[in-house]
Amino acid sequence: MKFEDLLLEIGGFGRFQILILFFLCLPRINLPMHFLLHNFLAATPSHHCAIPHQEAFVNLTMEEVLLISIPREPDGTFRSCEMFSEPQFHLLLNSSLQPENNSIIQHCQHGWVYDHSQFTSTISTEWDLVCEQRGLNQATATFFFIGVTMGAVVFGYLSDRFGRKAMLLLSLVCSVIFGMLSAASISYSMLAITRTLTGVALSGVSLIVLPLGMEWVDIQHRTFSGILTSIFWSIGNMLLAMIAYLVREWHWLLVAVTGPCLLSIVCLWWVPESARWLIANGKVKQAHRHVLRCARMNGRKDFAEDMPLTTYAQRIVLQWEYKKPGGSYSYISLFRTPVLRKISLCSGAVWFGVAFSYYGMSMNLTGFGLNMYLSQFVFGVIEIPAKIIMYVVVNRAGRRQSQAWALILTGLCIGANVIIPKPFTFLRSVVAIMGKGFSEAAFTTVFLYTSELYPTVLRQNGMGYTSFVARLGGALAPLVFLLDEVWRSLPEVTYCGVAVCCGSVAFLLPETLNVRLPEGIEDIE
Length: 525
Hints:
The protein is mainly alpha-helical and 525 residues long. The protein has 21 helices and 4 strands. Helix content is 66%, strand content 2%. The strands form 2 sheets. The protein has a two-stranded antiparallel sheet. Strands 2-3 form a two-stranded antiparallel ribbon.
């Protein structure tokens, strides 16, 4: 008997599964609050060089002091990173006569003055991560995603070795500890280290939540479960916009987005371990206990009463079904056999493209003509209809076509905004929102698709590997913004090209629509 057949007897989508999904959705809300926190944590307000006080400035207004101390850009705004070596008093008579001699222009010598109208403080204003230090500001997001990348490898292996639930609890506890330490950071180095460790911890949450829920759900409701779980990511997106709007000080913002992890820890005690994992690892007694609990909660009392009489026979069948002829499995197992190797290489490329383009769009909130809080909220709102539409599409067109075209269209939308002139703000915003919808559709599909591609004995290793590759994409995405110093549109062109190429690779993957979840490697090969 396959576990899928057993699910049909005990209820593959009843009250038991709904409660599991609900409790697993709570930590899912918390993920985007940290993954996209960089938009607000490291926001850089408008700034200019600090001007030391001089006796000659006594009768001048602040605007006049800036006029004679800081050169202007062609559009008339003051430069952010440069100042005159000596006050240019002649500009008081004619401000349009900007000096052409660059020798009198120098970098800021006395720090910066920031506009605090939008943010009380950010890490940019705390440690002057602007101008020459701008790279360190963007690197904060990269450090976080490097942590997520390392965590994907660690928790992917550990959750297959020691169980889904135990590792999910560990990752939540560590997320709270390192999140609070980040809020208490007294130096940039301390923040970089604690944000990296927070990324490691949250990677376990990201990696384990979906498979743990999916392994309790029958084939017919797998897609619905995946979409439902991912909708809570979008809710977290919208909550981040509201929390960031209310909390403008970066220390307290970190506390506000980390606190909800405590609620997830409390709720997790009710969530059972995956029966598939328990059986696959020979822990049939525990699996039997959870199966009986599922049957009772789903109203299958007859099955629950008869189960003890047939327990022994049932154990033999299930143990034989999940017997692992090759012993323990590792990440190397993903590349040992031909079909599994092809799946691993192609799915890795798709995950990289999905994450690279998603975070490229998500971390460019000010590039589409909308207020950054409104952009964050709208980007979260547009994800929900995108997910609902994908629920229909993946069940009609299949996983492969949905995955490929969602990612390709994401790239085309990003590319379109390179061509559309800046003054067409409304059109650029519409195209950006459409691109964000396609991007989220691609992310939603790839989680569901990947969990169906790998067998139970390697599912968490597979998710760990693909998550590792995705986080490489997430780590590189914020650094690509620095390419605008080479060519203003180069970051968008890069995101566009990667999304289209990686989307095309998805056509090489097998279709999994209405196919049983594979249990062993032999089911794949």
